[in-house]
Specification:
Layout: E1 3-8, E2 14-20, E3 25-31, H1 36-39, H2 41-59, E4 66-73, H3 79-95, E5 103-107, H4 108-117, E6 122-127, E7 131-136, E8 142-146, H5 149-152, H6 158-174, H7 181-190, H8 195-203, H9 213-221, H10 225-248, E9 254-259, H11 261-264, H12 268-280, E10 284-286, H13 293-309
Parallel strand pairs: 1-4, 4-5, 6-9, 9-10
Antiparallel strand pairs: 1-2, 2-3, 6-7, 7-8
Amino acid sequence: MYYVIGIDGGGTKSKAVLTDLHLKTLAECTGGPTNFLIRGTTEVSQTLIELINNCITSANVSADDVVYVVLGTTGAGRVKEAEKMKYDFLNVCKRNNFPIKSFEVESDARIALEGAFGGKPGSILIAGTGSIMFGKDSAGEIHRVGGFGRYIGDEGSGFSLGRKGLSAVAKELDGRGTPTILTQLLADKKGISDQQSLITEVYVNNFDIASVAPLVLQAAENDDNICKTIIEEETDELLLHIKAMQKLIDVEILKVSFIGSLITKDNVYSKRFRDKIRNTLENVSLVKPEMPPEKGAALMAAQYFVSRIA
């Protein structure tokens, strides 16, 4: 019997699923962080071995029958880093006599795309701390929109909302801008109440700018015009992502699945964004993901194995 394992690697925890080649789930396990850009490939390799071993033990199968493992994680979109993670992991397996010989590293967005549509064509829009959109056409070609990072991109993301919110607060503290409810929320929730504390937190204490996004939403819900304007601007940016993907994937109806708390949760931002899609975009269908990202990784693992023996 042949088995595969798909892993959705995260910065705080990782999820794994062991399935047969028909994607029947036999075990699901969670483990430690597997973001190798932060933790390093050696530490992540050990975490992966523990996670894989837990799945094998839980499913009561032989490790020799696990024919492929796919890890989807942040940073794997850069080929050089992904190849290093693969090489280092397989070397650790070899040194530890752990019988995993077929292993691939994919981006977290790619496994999410495969999971959302069960390997079929479609697109995913991710809006959490950052933002990016991926699509797959009928020929199997992968298309990307956005994902240029916080310095030159990430429009419509939590980071972008937070950055614009902090800029509005800075202007009010200076007397250069319109008063906003966000200024008091920032003081109450984050202890930032004047110019110096704002500068120190952002430029010295590595303040989590995306953590201000929920406060922007809270202020907007309380009819704050500054924050309502931010939401209008940022949801417009996400609309541009979808419009660009429509041009790349020439289909009658573009299926879009949302990923990321900013647009999947019920809040003023996601509601406004969905309203705009319904009112301004034709031929777009919002659908729920068929499978979670880790199952998407398992699907890719099965496909890798089948293509190898074909």
